[in-house]
Amino acid sequence: MPQRAMGRLPDQSFVDDERLFRRYRPNDLVDGKLAPASLAIPKNSGPSFVREKYAIPEDVLHPDCAGARDFSGWGIFALRVGDIPPQLPPDVPTHRFWPQHVPLEDCYAHTEIWCNRIGQGQTYQAPNSATLKTLFRAMVSQHLKIVREPQ
Amino acid sequence: MPTIAFEPIANQKAWLTPPTRIFDFSAEAWPQPFVDKIVRSSLESEYTQRLTQYLALLRDFFRLRNLELGWDGYAAAPPTSRSLIRALSTLQRLLSLRFLPSRIIPSAEGGVALCYSYLDSFAQLELLNSGETVVVSYRGAAVPEAWEISDSEQETKKLVRRLQSFFDRV
Q1: pTM over 0.80
Q2: H or E stretch at B95
Q3: ipTM for the complex?
Q4: Does A104 touch chain B if contact means CB atoms closer than 8 Å?
Q5: With an 8 Å Cβ cutoff, is A142 touching chain B?
Q6: Rounded Cα distance, B4 and B6, in Å
Q7: Domain assignments of chain B as residue spans, ordered by start
Q8: What's the pLDDT tens digit per position in A102-128?
Q9: Domain region containing A70
Q10: For chain B, where are the E strands, in sequence order?
């Protein structure tokens, strides 16, 4: 059962070895790996995860952390916080990326990867460039580890 | 002058049956090693393999039409009919260029992704609902390369040459 927020504030302290978990759809693996296409950078909020500090991997399939939907047969992958590329593109960085704890009432562990233009404070702003987004998604998928195969 | 005597046809049905002892085309009549050779060569032919791969990709492709909003368990949009048409036309071009992808999957960004994977090398051609086409390739944990292309036949040919050379270096 995922931890409820119970009035707790967000905890923005992350260590590099902490893992972030996310669910994935059966049949979306390509040769046993998640393709960059399986990850998105939405326009209005960062891609969702649950963080290991306050969750077990299976929490990401629980309806409380999944918008009341049932994902019991789906797979789970993990991303180490230290594997989030901090700035992109590598040669002349324009954007930075970081984990942001965004607790939900029924899912305290809910976390997003946020990004914005370098120098624009702590607000979320998705890159406009499809190439930059793809680069980020590819760098993330290079480091993903499957925690649970779809059942 | 000799005369030819025609025998009356005693059994009309038997007469109409093909002379099986001379020209027997039934499967049982073919020598097994010959049958094995035909089957093996047809399965091993590049044409059959490419066709089988294309049919499997089409099966993946037609499944994309049934996706709904949030199909990825989050908020991903399904591919639009425009991106589906673009993906199908690209797939046909890739078939004629003999460079079919390993998989077709939906893109969580909204669109269709054609994926190539060989050992630790990976490439993806993503046809987005926004109308953009983005390619990314990488080997292992090396820094990926990403670039945009247009949907023209020339660009597809150029892309195929670039990816062939990328995978040839594996």
Answers
A1: yes
A2: helix B81-96
A3: 0.94
A4: no
A5: yes
A6: 6
A7: 27-168
A8: 999 999 999 999 999 998 888 999 999
A9: 19-148
A10: 103-107, 111-118, 121-128, 133-139, 145-149
